[in-house]
Design goal:
The protein is of the alpha/beta class and 231 residues long. The chain folds into 2 domains: 164 residues, Vaccinia Virus protein VP39 (Rossmann fold, 3-Layer(aba) Sandwich), CATH 3.40.50; 57 residues, no CATH class. The chain has 9 helices and 5 strands, in the order αααβαβαββαβααα. The protein has a 5-stranded parallel β-sheet. The radius of gyration is 31 Å and the shape is elongated.
């Protein structure tokens, strides 16, 4: 079993990779982006319904590209945005600088299991899409409860195996798991047979014009000569 640190390093490495930072123009990626946009719209609507005082402090755990962070800042809130990925933090910092929201947003690189904030310091804590990447959610949930003010709010979600972008992906659809398992087993069996066949000793071709030998030999006669001799 991976240690927490090894697990977190793998997660950070995934998000630090340039292949993840860039958007891919595939149907699956378009679906994933649409889900995230809808999720952000829901969060912003919930925040508006809370009617928080202007300049309330909001902590976003797992800020990602900082899109929700910037929208919250535009609505007059002071936002602390935290992520464990260096590349993600740099991207969010660029977005904040380009938007001119630097006076409303603080971007930090940190660990969700040890939030670098005082007790009871945030009126609202938002953690959308962060829980599925945690090895164990309990420590992070305790940290979120610690930094939330008494009477404050927490908006948190967790993905599930039946989400849309998994259902339309044959590599991730839970219902296709038995077929994927069968395909992997068949592929492994075929590979084993090829390896076993390749390891067999090579023998010389036996000629039908000779009696069955105790050891296979070769013949220099042509196929026409063999046919003529059999008539």
């Amino acid at each position: 079993m991976l240690s927490y640190r090894d697990h977190q390093e793998r997660v950070d490495s995934y998000f630090d990779s340039s292949s993840h930072i860039g958007w891919r123009s595939t149907a699956l990626e378009v679906c994933r982006v649409a889900i995230h946009q809808q999720r952000m719209a829901v969060v912003l609507r919930w925040v508006e319904n809370l009617s928080l005082p202007e300049r309330s402090i909001i902590l976003e755990v797992g800020c990602g590209a900082g899109l929700t962070t910037l929208e919250l800042a535009r609505r007059g809130y002071v936002v602390d945005a935290l992520d464990s990925s260096e590349a993600i933090v740099e991207r969010t910092l660029r977005g904040v600088a380009e938007s001119g929201a630097g006076g409303w947003v603080t971007v930090l690189r940190g660990d969700a299991v040890s939030l670098p904030f005082e007790n009871n310091s945030s009126t609202l804590v938002v953690a959308m899409g962060a829980v599925p990447w945690l090895e164990l959610p309990d420590p992070t949930v305790r940290e979120i409860a610690r930094v939330a003010k008494p009477g404050g709010y927490v908006i948190l979600n967790s993905d599930n195996l039946m989400r849309l972008n998994y259902l339309i992906d044959p590599h991730r659809n839970p219902g296709l798991a038995p077929l994927r398992h069968l395909a992997r087993g068949t592929s492994h069996e075929a590979s084993s047979k090829r390896r076993n066949f390749a390891s067999l000793p090579r023998t010389r071709r036996w000629c039908p014009c000779r009696p069955p030998p105790t050891s296979i030999g070769s013949c220099d006669r042509t196929e026409a000569e063999h046919t003529e001799g059999q008539l």
